[in-house]
């Protein structure tokens, strides 16, 4: 708007300090031929949630939080302002047909991978139902896949009682043979939040489960480090799936299924950063944030920092 | 994003009905050579408020409300989807220097008028302090100006006790001879919300004042009709300034200075629509909404409907 | 709990005045052979909503409001404590399959009618999507049906763009020939909330539409009276469908699609009471309340009073 | 604080316009020998409430609202800044012993009347339980007393089921012969909020009852005018008791027992102003506001305006 | 409801996974002859609170939280779905007479113990005032009693200044010789939350006090273990009294007297689980949660997990 | 109010326990000749904030929190009720002129120091902009000054882009040579919250910076102890500046710039207590709390406890 002295686009930040770069400034919308290090995709889908959820609003809320976060790490003395992030926008969700929506997510992620424009990908959910089509798409494109799942819950419910809800993504992935049980690691599983049957199912399928007692005793960072190393020898590609309800309700008050006794913010950030260091780790999803129930976007802001620990590696 | 089957830009509405046009779809960002019927300018300025106010957030909140409002009037059986609205964005406000900010508003509005791209203008405040530079700019461009002010308050405070706050815009306009007292009409002035001195000042300057008792007895629509007719004979240009606190707290709970005994939503919408019919009415500002204190954006949504009654005339 | 001196069931009201009867005390859960004047059915379904909605929580919230409302009308000097209300509970909604859920609603209402236990029925939604299976079931059981719809919206969207959402129930009813356009009356339709195409559709189908200007000019009570009389000559059965967003946002702040310029609480209560007087009026649904967004259950409490005006007739 | 250039007491308003007087500036704390027109007493008592209530916080919240209200009426062109208000503070309530608290209220009001420092009195509750000791004290000091009660409820519950709760003050006054049934007028009684037994009791005792249908048909102002005139011939002293739940929930969202279909703000303010004109009207209580459940102190602000209509008479 | 295909009772959970058992499913309402391991009693009493409190609503809120918690511990690999919980309901509280209410609590607990239907008991408060009649009843039935009190406060205020408030239960128990000072252990006492006099009183009476500095240095679990062992040699029966304000405000934001510097959720859960292991530990009360001031029932949910750690022992 | 048996001043606490002293009871308003140990000054200034902030309301909110905090430390077995606190009130802030406001703060603090009435001073902000005039005033009165700054941010932004905002106080102090870079210590600086340029600036100026990784590794208490010792040898006077956003968002949810990964409440309280032990530490400011965005005044309450750790030293 060159002919106007002071006009800014609506929604632009009102104040700009010339010496500060915000993460938002490093994001470009996708256009043909663009190349970036990180691809960002919003999956505003929450109609598969068993309980009411507006998790579908989270992709935009998390993006908004990036406008208050800078690109500089004082601890590492590194500025990441040159890392380009390509935003592919949000997958258009069908208002009522969940199978159609899951299919659109699957197709979109495959098309995005096919664009070969980025090296790593971040999927912003949505409820945990999005991980089934997302992980499936990556598996089909990249080969054997290992998955680290931060979660209070196993998410291996039977499909008969309610169809493909947000309680079933890993069941669907295992049954469809997109992921092998030995290549799935669940971290932060909480007592009195799951059932004996489903715990039994994880054992039967060879899933590696670390509950909160394990996390407290062994430390979440060493535990993640060891599993990433193990997986890296067995798979072609590692995918991180972060269900924010792994975090204690005091630190992540905006998840649909909040509860006490979970991991702290620091434990989540430290462990994701540890995993992100490995070259085979190439995709991340963040799910189960309902901004309408959060307090001052605390949970979305924490999610934005999870993104940073994945994107900005030492 | 042609190569992707289902991707929408972040923040785009997820669902589109092919037979429904939302007001937002009729808005174009300014670009050189563009022509439209309505020019829209955001004035995100609220640091001149005597009490704490985040009215500076209202321009974007009101814009957001337009995405849920359609262009069709069933009462008039008219669709306004062909009326183009040009959005000039927001004036960049200085973080702490209010005189500088007032000056930027003044300059920006002059530059926008100079672009000759629109026929009518809507300024979205901000606090009422924005009306001083805005009305001054219009006066200097268009000649003698008449002003209809919907407000619970006279806004003619002395300038010594606090400088050019949001309690002073009409004092500044009168003292600067940008508006003549005979050409200022105040509607909806409320008891126990003003002082004897300032009421005296309005009398002395020849301002026409209608308090709530007048509104109840005469009806707000006939009263506005009569004043627009009178003004139209005396001035070159009529400017509407709507301080949303003219409305009762039950209908506009998000104003900084809410109170009981004000006009209803219908009275506000009806009277603005009546004024907007006259050809000399060419500018509107809407001020004093603090979205951070509103309930479900009720007050911003009402403001969006005020915009419509000004834009879409029978 | 005869052996305990002071124990009450959990969730029972702590205080009971022997001379006051609350509506809740007149409600019995369905059991075989029971007879009552009013049948109450909850339809906790809101996954067909275009925008996020927790309207599925409303049936229980409205029921809770009945525990603070008494059975006595001082205006009529009548006590209705002997009118028995049979609560059939809530239809079990499928977590993700909306067609399945609509089918369960349809089947349940037919089964309830078949039980022949009640004279009139109240369906508590849920979003407006529930009216399609509900009205269809009544039509199939009782013959030609007339519908009075209180609503800001026509709800005749096309079915292609999103399937059978809460914007489509009357389209589905008309296309399926369950309701004849001449037998559908829409009251309180609001400007800038609908589209020209759909307004055209209502004309084409012969639907009678009263917009807010009509309501203001003719008065909602006479208008309803006249239409009930007309319909009663043409149909076997009259069904009232109350979308609470017909009410102004100041009086019903908990609807998903709130807006200014709607009817007042008194206009809603008075007009439902007027309609309920007619013997052919035998069913009522109340929809589009999202308790999670309401203020102190205002909208559910108003809905509970709508129930009363339907149940308790002079 | 003469030696400091800019210091103000903590809690003082930060900004003062030399030409504006706020009601707060006209309030003096009681000291021996002081004389004023209005005496103000806080009764922060709500442990007699049947349902949970923090109405005990209202006296201070209402006082706070006076700091944003001026002394000038533009409608009457009168400034009331010379009317002195004497604030006697709040009665110390016993933490758990309600009979002791009622007794302290009774004693305090008698002592205040004995101080002969004021002409009229305003009691700020608290729940409606405060009216029993308050009215009793006035009766014992001033002779035969007439009471106008704005209320959705009769408040004549039996004393056996829960003792002297906020549902019983007028029962206690009648049984104790402090008020004669013929001298009690109830205005705004609402349907489905009372019981047949208690309605019968009001008839038996000769209480005059105007329900909402009466208010709608006759108009609240003429109705109040007529009753004040009648009472003035029969009693020595008239006491106004305003239970804020007489107001519709949209206008007074902070009462414990909110509901739809009540009077509007304007109806309340107009009718209190009408009553206050009469010389025999010398006391006012305002009760049943729970600030913890209000929205932006709307209900307390309305109560402050009720005070003004009582204090500032033409 | 056998004749209906899809109907569920109102308030029933909408979705049931056949392989998951919720704690709620293990609860039966008391009926004659019933036997269970845990007896549950609600004490919805908060009128003894010095400050305003709606703690009386907590018993039902905590019960509601149990519907989202399962019976399975993955850490112990144990499912507790066969432990039967008998719900005796809530004690009917008198609306205004606190001594009467305390007496009803005392009588009810004695009657429940006399029913000999359960092995352990959980009392859900209510404010801390409920512990006086509750502990007294257990002492009179079971002999010498030891009490572990988790609390930020000593709760030994004098009885003259306000009677038997929620600040006095342990004073009442000591003065009445129901508990011996040597058998009372206070854990988590916080600085700047008590007074020198009352600290002196605890010393004088021989109460064992662990403040937050002790908790930080020695660890809450070893400290509880050691005291349970000591007490078990000296008493017949151990009672746990958990005032939730022992927890830091970040983890338990819904207590009336929140503050910083308290124990974490994990410290509370771990220490209650440690105590619950001992066979002499047979009763638990949980008090001082005001659901109306909580955020998303965080504090009630934490309380529900405290219940689990007491009920479900390895 | 000797002639009245039960009256308390409005706003007085309703209940007083004779054996408990609240901090509020130890506060006297300034009057000539008064002497105290602690001087308290409110700086209700937040118009220099880059983002919207009502931090100007914090001084009064923090004071209110002191009414629920006692003077007794059980850990130290010390009662501080004899430490007199002198409250100088709040500096009158100009409604719109920030330079004028900064100048008034500067002048007021100098005048207060000149009154020689206190030994230590607590300044309650307001935004961090207040520290520039405050520290400057102390420096000019007391000589070489050392500053410990708890903060997530460096606050050394350039002055050209927005003037003297709350992002610049330490830049202003360094450029004005009021503080020497070697005498400024920043604790708790957070990653992705600052920029490379400004980090470089701190290095260049010789500022000592401890980021969160340092805090985690070395422990905040030893680190503060070591820096206070170092500074005490180089300066005449040590000033503590506590920006509450150094605390994690879970523990201090009311700061304008909240974020995850900060210090805990205990880390803040422990480290301030450690610093306060040194005799040269004589001033404290607490800034960046916006009470309008807090949850139940958690952040102000934590700030009140920071005051206590500074005032009440072993
Ligand atoms: Ca999950
Ligand atoms: Ca989960
Ligand atoms: Ca104004
Ligand atoms: Ca105004
Ligand atoms: Ca509808
Ligand atoms: Ca509608
Ligand atoms: Ca009453
Ligand atoms: Ca009432
Ligand atoms: Ca306690
Ligand atoms: Ca306590
Ligand atoms: Ca800072
Ligand atoms: Ca900071």
UniProtKB/TrEMBL annotation, chains A, B, C, D, E, F:
<dbReference type="InterPro" id="IPR006035">
    <property type="entry name" value="Ureohydrolase"/>
</dbReference>
<protein>
    <recommendedName>
        <fullName>Formimidoylglutamase</fullName>
        <ecNumber>3.5.3.8</ecNumber>
    </recommendedName>
</protein>
<feature type="binding site">
    <location>
        <position position="153"/>
    </location>
    <ligand>
        <name>Mn(2+)</name>
    </ligand>
</feature>
<keyword id="KW-0369">Histidine metabolism</keyword>
<feature type="binding site">
    <location>
        <position position="155"/>
    </location>
    <ligand>
        <name>Mn(2+)</name>
    </ligand>
</feature>
<dbReference type="InterPro" id="IPR005923">
    <property type="entry name" value="HutG"/>
</dbReference>
<dbReference type="GO" id="GO:0033389">
    <property type="term" value="P:putrescine biosynthetic process from arginine, via agmatine"/>
</dbReference>
<dbReference type="InterPro" id="IPR020855">
    <property type="entry name" value="Ureohydrolase_Mn_BS"/>
</dbReference>
<dbReference type="GO" id="GO:0019556">
    <property type="term" value="P:L-histidine catabolic process to glutamate and formamide"/>
</dbReference>
<comment type="similarity">
    <text>Belongs to the arginase family.</text>
</comment>
<feature type="binding site">
    <location>
        <position position="245"/>
    </location>
    <ligand>
        <name>Mn(2+)</name>
    </ligand>
</feature>
<keyword id="KW-0479">Metal-binding</keyword>
<dbReference type="InterPro" id="IPR023696">
    <property type="entry name" value="Ureohydrolase_dom_sf"/>
</dbReference>
<dbReference type="Pfam" id="PF00491">
    <property type="entry name" value="Arginase"/>
</dbReference>
<keyword id="KW-0378">Hydrolase</keyword>
<feature type="binding site">
    <location>
        <position position="151"/>
    </location>
    <ligand>
        <name>Mn(2+)</name>
    </ligand>
</feature>
<dbReference type="GO" id="GO:0046872">
    <property type="term" value="F:metal ion binding"/>
</dbReference>
<dbReference type="GO" id="GO:0008783">
    <property type="term" value="F:agmatinase activity"/>
</dbReference>
<keyword id="KW-0464">Manganese</keyword>
<dbReference type="GO" id="GO:0050415">
    <property type="term" value="F:formimidoylglutamase activity"/>
</dbReference>
<feature type="binding site">
    <location>
        <position position="243"/>
    </location>
    <ligand>
        <name>Mn(2+)</name>
    </ligand>
</feature>
<feature type="binding site">
    <location>
        <position position="128"/>
    </location>
    <ligand>
        <name>Mn(2+)</name>
    </ligand>
</feature>
């Amino acid at each position: 708007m060159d002919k106007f002295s002071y006009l800014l686009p609506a929604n632009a930040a009102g104040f700009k300090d010339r010496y500060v770069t915000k993460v938002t400034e490093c994001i470009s919308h996708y256009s043909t031929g663009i190349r970036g290090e990180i691809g960002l995709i919003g999956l505003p889908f929450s109609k598969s949630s068993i309980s009411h959820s507006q998790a579908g609003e989270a992709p935009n809320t998390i993006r908004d939080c990036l406008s208050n976060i800078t690109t500089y790490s004082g601890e590492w003395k590194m500025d990441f302002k040159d890392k380009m992030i390509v935003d592919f926008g949000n997958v258009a969700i069908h208002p009522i047909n969940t199978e159609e929506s899951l299919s659109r997510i699957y197709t979109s992620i495959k098309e995005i991978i096919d664009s070969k424009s980025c090296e790593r990908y971040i999927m912003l959910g949505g409820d945990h139902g999005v991980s089934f089509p997302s992980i499936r798409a990556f598996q089909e494109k990249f080969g054997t896949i290992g998955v680290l799942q931060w979660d209070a819950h196993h998410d291996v419910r039977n499909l008969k009682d309610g169809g493909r809800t947000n309680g079933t993504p890993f069941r669907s992935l295992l049954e469809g043979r997109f992921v092998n049980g030995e290549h799935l690691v669940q971290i932060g599983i909480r007592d009195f939040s799951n059932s004996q049957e489903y715990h039994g199912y994880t054992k039967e399928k060879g899933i590696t489960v670390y509950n909160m007692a394990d996390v407290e005793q062994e430390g979440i960072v060493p535990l993640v480090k060891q599993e990433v190393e193990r997986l890296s020898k067995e798979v072609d590609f590692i995918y991180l799936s972060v269900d924010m309800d792994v975090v204690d309700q005091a630190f992540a008050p905006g998840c649909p299924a909040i509860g006490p006794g979970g991991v702290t913010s620091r434990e989540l950030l430290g462990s994701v950063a540890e995993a992100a260091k490995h070259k085979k780790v190439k995709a991340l999803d963040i799910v189960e944030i309902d901004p309408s129930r959060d307090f001052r976007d605390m949970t979305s802001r924490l999610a934005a920092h999870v993104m940073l620990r994945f994107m900005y590696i030492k």
